Amino acid sequence: MTTAAREGSAEAPLRARGVEVEIGGTPILRGADLELARGELLAVVGPNGAGKSTLVRAVSGLQPLAAGEVRWSGRELGEMRGRDLARVRAFVPQRMPVPAGVTVREAVTIGRSSHLRPLRRLSAHDQDAIGAAMERTGVTRFAGRALTTLSGGELQRVQIAVGLAQETPVLIADEPTSQLDLGATVGIATLLRSLADDGLAVLLVVHDLALAAALADRAVIVAEGRTVAAGEPGAILTSERLASIWHAEAHLSEHDGRTALHVAWTERAEASRGAS
Amino acid sequence: MARRALVFAALAVAVIAASVVSLALGAINVPLSETIDILLGKGTGGPHEQIVETLRLPRTVEALAVGAALGVAGAILQGALANPLASPDVIGVTGGAGFGAILIIILFPGSIALLPVGALAFGLLAASLVFAIAWSGANRGNTGKVILAGIAVLSLFTAGTTGLLAAYPERAPSAIFFIAGGLTSSGWDELQTIWPYFAVGFICAAILIRPLDRLALGDDVAASLGSRPHLIRLGAAIAAALLAAASAAIAGLLGFLGLVVPHVVRMAGGTSSQTFVVPASALGGAALLAAADTLARTLRAPIEMPVGPFMVILGVPLFLWLLRKVV
């Protein structure tokens, strides 16, 4: 191993500093930092429009930076080609389009295509990677079904399988549970947690703060285009921050690995508490 | 998988059957066995050999090449733009090629040999115009932008064509055959000029198969896999423009084929995976055009009917039947 490679392997998989993004001349991110360690599940939380999705898209190379620095295992993002990026991170979008006439297996196979040269066929190793991705996400039993026939939860599993087939050290998912019911959310959360436990670094945009608190090793709060806090979710998601950033009177509680967000859902609830 | 292999085999048989029939039948019918002998170089040097080798072989090859090119152009455009209505019309090629051909027919009737060149040049010019508009500024390469730019450019060139025809009504009849779309028995000359465009178009299409499959799962997944979605779309549009403009240069305006063949192939194969759809559309388009051209010149032989309207009349009922059955 060369010295450079050894230094590279000691680097965090992803480190971003002072990321700024403008879309159509409007600044969306004004200075965001992010650091993701090996085998860590990091949740990006924040109110609507804070720039959470833009941040994970920017570090993934899906959105051009206006300023700042992003390094993947020490390599500068701007110097990496699409194929290099496809080897270090997989990006799972919030909701992929559902084309007609594509089966689950075909979709996951497409997820493997970054490893193939043009016109080359799948190798045995590629087939194994596709099979493992499907097995891990629990989609093997409906591998032959068309994407158009799947439920929201099944589709989200397929999307994660497409990402896993890329066999990257980092998986980035943009609000994978935002459109799912309770049971499907639990299923996806369990899957993502177990992937992180097995050494995959997972970067997750998530709206549900109780879910973030239960699932994530660390969280980053994004507000108005800036990262304002990072750390253990229970420690940084304080009532004060929920009030100042989300404008809600609420607090997180945790008991036996179960989390809840206690919210004053109406102004009347806030008022009655004030009176008592 | 078995179903796809079956469809593929059926299409391959259709291509071979259509080619042999196209070589054998015409104003003079050559027996099938003799046709095959002539093809294998075992001909006896009679007039039949002359007919098959110098008239029908080039025409059949043209039909296969144009049919395959339009099928592939439609398949990759529909994939790239994620729009079932996409065909070479949508990127302006057909409108431009029509204008270029009519320009030669009406303003330079003495240089009719320039017609394929005019069609090719203006077809590519129109497509370049669409690309220049659609792949610049905000949202470059956005599907809606490509289609709107394409329809605007198409309208522009169609207006030019109509204007030319209205200004020189006495020369309009000679333009009708080109607009309707049809092949001629004019030997190898046209193919000799045009083949490089077909070759580049087909090679690009083959390379784009896998990137287009990625695009089916959305721009974000394609980007995750290291592709740049707007460049895939541009590549597909350029390949389709080359194939469609080269086709128009040889056979006039046969837009219908490029629109319908990929749909029929998808419905028959039960998949929209480009690994299947692109080559199957090539076979389907080739078989359809070779068969339709044979019918068009034999039904009322020795009078030749233009293959374009003929193919539409034959193809639309089949298409509508499949559409009812599948969707």
Describe the structure.
The complex is a heterodimer of chains A (276) and B (327). Chain A has 276 residues and is an alpha/beta fold. Chain A has helices spanning 3-10, 52-60, 82-88, 104-111, 124-137, 152-164, 182-197, 209-215, 233-236, 239-246, 267-275, and strands at 14-23, 26-36, 41-45, 67-72, 75-76, 89-92, 170-174, 201-205, 218-223, 226-231, 250-255, 258-263. Helices cover 37% and strands 26% of the residues of chain A. Chain A starts with a helix and ends with a helix. Mean pLDDT of chain A is 90; it is low at 1-8. Helix content of chain B is 77%, strand content 0%. The model of chain B has no long low-confidence stretch (mean pLDDT 87). Chain A binds chain B through residues 24, 60-62, 81-86, 89-93, 96-97, 99-103, 106-107, 110-111, 113-114, 116, 118-119, 162-163, 166, and chain B through 82, 138, 206-207, 209-210, 213-214, 216-218, 220-221, 223-228, 266, 270-273.
What descriptive keywords fit this protein?
heterodimer, A: 276 residues, alpha/beta, six-stranded mixed sheet, 12 strands, disordered N terminus, B: 327 residues, mainly alpha, globular
Summarize the structure.
The complex is a heterodimer of chains A (276) and B (327). Chain A contains eleven helices and twelve strands.
Q: Any idea what the radius of gyration of chain A is?
A: 20 Å
* Percent in strands of chain B: under 5%
Rg for CA atoms of chain B: 20 Å
Strand content of chain A: 25-35%
Q: State the secondary-structure class of chain A.
A: alpha/beta
- Encode the helix/strand succession of chain B as letters: HHHHHHHHHHHHH
Low-confidence stretches of chain A: 1-8
Q: Give the SSE order of chain A as H and E letters.
A: HEEEHEEHEHHHEHEHEEHHEEH
Low-pLDDT sequence parts of chain B: none
Oligomer: heterodimer
Counted beta strands of chain A: 12
Report the principal-axis shape of chain B: globular
Largest sheet composition of chain B: none
> If helices are DSSP runs of H or I spanning 4 or more residues, what is the number of helices of chain B?
13
Average pLDDT for all residues of chain B:
87
Number of discrete helical segments of chain A: 11
